[in-house]
Design a protein that fits this description.
about 400 residues, alpha/beta, six-stranded mixed sheet, 18 strands, about 30% helix, about 20% strand, globular
Amino acid sequence: MSQLSAWDHPEPLALDTAPLPEYGTGSLADLLPTVAAGMGVPGLTATITELTAADRVCVFLIDGLGWEQLRAHPDEAPFLASLLGTSRGGTGRPLTAGYPATTATSLASVGTGLPPGAHGLPGYAVRNPATGALMNQLRWQPYTEPRPWQPYPTVFQLAHDAGVHAAQVSSPTFAQTPLTKVALSGGSFHGRLTGEERMDLAAEQLAAGDRSLVYTYYAELDGAGHRYGVASDTWRGQLMKVDRLAQRLAEQLPPRSALYVTADHGMVDVPFDEQHRIDFDEDWELRAGVALLGGEGRARHVYAVPGAENDVLTCWREVLGEQFWVASRDEAIAAGWFGPHIDERVYARLGDVIAAAYDDVLIIASEREPKESALVGNHGSMTPAEQLVPLLEVRS
């Protein structure tokens, strides 16, 4: 049986056919603990066993660069494509993002080294049990105190406390955001506007310590995919740019360094028709008994009116048929969608019903989410196109 056979399971209706993220062995949440454990940071374990320790490590996270999209575009990304065989310690295999495969969740998984059920950012927009209202975890709106929402220290903070030179190099826009504070803080933050400046400074920060842990980030590929789709010339142009950036950074690595190029999720283009875009705001069956619609189009958290949970679950399963894996909160937890354990403070953030797309479909909300409903490229679910991400490696 091949390593990825579970991702190609022909029966999408049964919950046990949903291809689980490889929490504990090969997910994004396992990357920084593995790297930092290799530097001797106490309390962390190297769970991605294929990786070899290095004194200086840089993680370059390209927002939206899925494994399948990279493999499909070798001409636009010749440097990155040449590294496909190095992925995951030379196995040529991808990592899994974690569920849902979305930026806020994945960045928190990367930075804390914890799966979503522990760090508590389990989606794009989830219910805040304290207020009963939706909280957008990417934009952090409405504002919520960051530390109670995500109380665990980041791997960068643990590394810094252990004497490792820790640094993040990203857009100045992200310097003081709550998401940065709870997911990616620790050590020093360096804001640079252009991708080229970030690559150059990331290399400098790597060289600044005998043991260094550096993170850098590029968002524009994801933006191009959302606006124009991964089949667009604009997206391919951005892929060409990130390929050049990765090569620029790789060519500047100081001695005893490892560069890992990865991503937070892949992406799926969804056609603009009623068959592929199911409008919650115009579907009375899906709306019945629903108090709040959270998550995003391919990874929905559905919050029922008290007492209507079972009816909503039954209706969503009947209406969505074979297009979505539809689970109750407890079923999704038992199946391990959000990781092996769910913290008590996280439990009520999860939807009473959770719907993960199997086909190239969306549950849009044209009235309450007009901007999100107009996106071409989308992500969030557990399909290979969204869930699988590279872990390309360059060493000096």
